[in-house]
Amino acid sequence: MSTRPYTVVDLPQFDAIIDARTPAEFALDHVPGAINCPVLSNEERHLVGTTYVQVSAFEARKMGGAMVARNIARHLDESFSRHGTQWRPMVYCWRGGMRSGSFVNVLRMVGWDAQQLKGGYKAWRHHVVDTLPALSTALSWRVLCGATGSAKTRVLHAMAEAGEQVLDLEGLAEHRGSVLGEVPGVPQPAQKAFETQLFAAMAGFDPARPVWVEAESRRIGRITVPESLSDAMRASPLVEIVATPQARVDHLLRDYDWLVQDPAALSQRLGSLKGLVPNAALAQWQAWAQAGDLVPLLSALLNDHYDPLYNRSMGQYWAQIGNVKRVGADDLSPDGIVALAERVARLA
């Protein structure tokens, strides 16, 4: 049984990665593929911390020790009883301290070659933050741009299904990147969790092949794209989808079907544009939303709000805009998107 320090680069060697932190800590972010086996629940950790501050460190350790022992015993019974002697788990907590150390000691007493991650979750977090800039510059990006409603995300999905390397930033952020972009009923991840997913996706790409990504601003909902990635994207070659206005409206009606189902919610979201568009225009848009009259609403939104924003953004921030390759599109139906994806991929 090895006793050398194990770091984040050793994680692939292990049969399981066990996160011993609380469910709340795990939900904010965790090592990809880790399972949560907390040695203290959210409530227990709070109680131990309160006891440490208000009573004494000894009383807190005594109380916490009993809780930890009970929880580890439960995990042995419920989660690990089927494993044989060759099973090798890696365990981590916040900093590689008492929580994961206690867990490792018990697992080793059973007979498993359990190891503790040096530095714990904090070491993993530093690894992600330190490695993302290098990954951003090492990969060969191809940026797909186009005005709102051009089906860029759907085209990228079709390209991924055809075998292209694709980074779906909106998918990782659980947001479509506009005032209408919040996915109903789906919360966005924490910033740290987004960056962990981003790291995992980028680390899996072949640097010898291009990676396609959608042109995004630094903010996707409340998620921030790391500066290193944003800078690399903005210096990369561009391919622009130039879709007809009718095709864009038809695509939005299909892709944002919730707009039809909840006119009141749509009107409320449009309210966030107050101060950005004339009051009379906003009042008309909200009236159309309330009435479910989406074709004139979407046409006006595209022509008077989204298109001017897009044109300004592309001119200001994208260094390769002068060399952009354009692909026309008048059909953004599912079959049309597949055909468009093939045409875009040939421009790599």
Specify the structural class: alpha/beta
Overall number of structural domains: 2
CATH architecture of the largest domain: 3-Layer(aba) Sandwich
CATH topology of the largest domain: Rossmann fold
Count of DSSP H/I helices:
15
Radius of gyration: 25 Å
Q: How many beta-strand elements? A: 11
Unreliable runs: none
The level of helicity is: 40-55%
Q: What is the overall shape?
A: elongated
CATH class label of the largest domain: Alpha Beta
Strand share of the residues? 5-15%
Cα distance spanning the termini: 50 Å
Largest sheet: 5 strands, parallel
Strand order of the largest sheet: 6-7-5-10-11
Can you characterise this structure?
It contains 15 helices and eleven strands. The protein is elongated. It is an alpha/beta fold and 348 residues long. The strands form three sheets. Strands 6-7-5-10-11 form a five-stranded parallel beta sheet, with helices on both faces. The protein has a four-stranded parallel beta sheet with strand order 2-1-3-4, covered by helices on one side. The protein has a two-stranded antiparallel ribbon with strand order 8-9.
